[in-house]
Amino acid sequence: MEKMQPVIQIEHLSKHFSIDNGFFTKGKKTVKAVNDFTLNLEKGKILGLVGESGSGKTTLARVILNLTSATEGTVLINGVDMSKCSAAEKKELRKNIAVVFQDPLSNLNPRETVMSSIMRPMVLHGMKRALAREKAREVLESVKMDAHYLNSYPHQLSGGQLQRIAIARALAMNPQIMILDEPTSALDISVQAQILNLLLDLQEQHQLTYMIITHDLNVIRYISDQVAVMYLGQLVEYGETKIMCSNPSHPYSKALMAASPILDPTMRGREKEIMKGDPGSLIHFPSGCSFHPRCRYAEEICMQERPEMERIGENHWARCHLCMQK
Amino acid sequence: MNDELLRLENVSINYKVRGGYLSAVKDVSFHVNRGEIFAVVGESGCGKSTVAHSIMRLLDKNAVVLGSIKYNGTNLMELSNKQITGVRGHDIGMIFQNPLDSLNPVYTTGAQVNEAIRLDGISKLEGWKKVIELYRNVKMPDAEKRVQAYPHEMSGGMRQRVMIAMMLSRNPSLLIADEPTTALDVTIEAQILEIISQLKKEFGTAVMLITHNFGLVAEVADRVAIMYAGELVEQGDVFEIFRAPKHPYTRLLMKALPRGTKQEGRLQTIDGTVPRLMEVQPGCRFANRCPMAKKICYEQDPAIRALSATHTYRCHFAEEEV
């Protein structure tokens, strides 16, 4: 069977930041935000990326968007490595990939109307103003908002409306890929439901590919096709949502899923594995598997050798010595 | 043992603002029993935090509180400032969403907890021993060392533990927890929830949990009150409400929660927006978004209907009509 080329191909990606403490220590300490990350994302799929805060989810998104360069490894978008392109080529490629951030108020210009915020990317890419205005109306309609909001300023709108506008602006360039960084975390339940429905509708209409970063596992289970779990900058498990949410293999994914509150009081009595401790530091990594200090199954080998990502089932990978033995 | 600790009766809270009053809370009544976890849940701006703050008399000066708030039979609203200071911490403890706002950055966390302990008149040295014991109670890793740590040296989960330890040191009978885990990761949230559930078991502390997260309610609460736009629309036993919510708002909200997968269909949405709360008008505040609303809903305050001894809702529609 011929395999379709993935829209996003991430190969052994690492991103390290050096912390400049002073003249003599310059470059001595590094924060390893993303380590040896490999993942492919196929067209028309929704990938959910989960992990605790500080696990490198947002850094990964920034590297994919080429907002910061990778330390090692490559990111191919439709087979093209953006970091090796000229500025003009980059600009062209950026049309394909759009981003929506968590707090919509902070990434809309408070002094611009909704209309000019949505028009800006189109104008920057050389579209005629009249045409851009027309398109702005169109995308605002596609996020189910009335055209009279075009003349509003961000402070006049609610959180849900602002998030719709951020999505509308992302849609303006007809992207193929959308990266959504905590798109519903700041929103109320009823508004979250509206945004999730909207994202699914848009994805079906335009055959979009999404990468959704969130820590809300109920949202991930609802919306995504595949789930990738990150811990301390590493991908620890990846698989289809169904397996990942019902029967994950990696001890960290297990603990993460178990910690997530279930919306049903009758499930209260279930056996829960409460993970001890906090996520470790990205500067001083533990030896061997970076999860071993918190892992209840850890054995001798986990402290000594770093596990590699290995296939443990149909489209299911995990980075764990013990998952392999089972 | 299941007697009443706190009772709010017809509490309305209005803020004096330019051009009139903003009605943040309208006619709210509920009680919290000794040793239970009572959750108040609702979307942002529904007045849940305002109610919590009114119990501790922590509202801004422009707030006007009507009705009565009784703790152990004493009306907290009639106490002098000095008396209410005695109630705070000693009888009712409170923890907030962001523990960093409640901790002093220039003192070690242990010293700050010790300060609370020494209100009882014990020596400094005795106090330190107690601090370590409290840190152990809240499952602080490396308790002996952590008493010397400054707030910035701790993670969010540890700071929230310090707040709980500080609160525990005064041994209050009621803990008001205002979004205690909202800023934390799910794994740390699970740890904090475990501690809160343990307080209830070991010390018989009653907990009033303010949250927007229905997941937390399902996990730990005994009873729950659901608020919408300043009104308490439904309250009762958690199991009953999750099984059969009655108020139209609660029912829609329960269906808006993502429980399954997208293959099972789109989520329920609630059209429209929360009304402006500038004037106190009669009628149900959910009427403009309610799929069942009739003329009467806009004109008259709905009565509270009891479904059972442990489940009430505030709606014009009778049980069989909803």
Task: Describe the structure using short key phrases.
heterodimer; A: 326 residues; alpha/beta; Rossmann fold; eight-stranded mixed sheet; four-stranded antiparallel sheet; 12 strands; B: 322 residues; 12 helices; globular
Query: Architecture of the largest domain in chain B in CATH?
Result: 3-Layer(aba) Sandwich
CATH homologous superfamily assignment of chain A: P-loop containing nucleotide triphosphate hydrolases
Count of helical regions of chain A = 11
Poorly predicted runs of chain A are: none
Largest interface: A-B, 41 and 41 residues
* Count of extended strands of chain A: 12
Oligomerization status of the protein chains:
heterodimer
What is the 3D form of chain A?
A: globular
CATH homologous superfamily identity of the largest domain in chain B? P-loop containing nucleotide triphosphate hydrolases
Order of helices and strands of chain A: EEEHEEHEHHHEHEHEEHHHEEH
Radius of gyration of chain B: 21 Å
Q: Determine the CATH topology of chain A.
A: Rossmann fold
Question: What's the CATH C level of the largest domain in chain B?
Answer: Alpha Beta
How many helices of chain B? 12
Structural account:
The complex is a heterodimer of chains A (326) and B (322). With 326 residues, chain A is α/β, with parallel strands linked by helices. Chain A has a single domain, classed as Rossmann fold (3-Layer(aba) Sandwich), CATH 3.40.50. In chain A, 32% of the residues lie in helices and 22% in strands. Chain A has helices at residues 57-64, 87-94, 114-124, 129-142, 159-171, 189-206, 217-223, 241-246, 251-259, 300-304, 321-325; strands spanning 8-19, 29-41, 46-50, 72-77, 80-81, 97-100, 177-181, 209-213, 226-231, 234-240, 310-313, 316-318. In chain A, strand 9 (226-231) and strand 10 form a beta hairpin. Chain B has 322 residues and is α/β, with parallel strands linked by helices. Chain B has two domains: 4-91 and 172-314, Rossmann fold; 99-171, no CATH class. In chain B, 33% of the residues lie in helices and 25% in strands. Chain B has an eight-stranded mixed β-sheet, sandwiched between helices. In chain B, a hairpin with a 2-residue loop joins strand 9 and strand 10 (231-237). The model of chain B has no long low-confidence stretch (mean pLDDT 92). Chains A and B meet through helix 6, helix 7 and helix 9 of A and helix 8, helix 9, helix 10 and helix 11 of B.
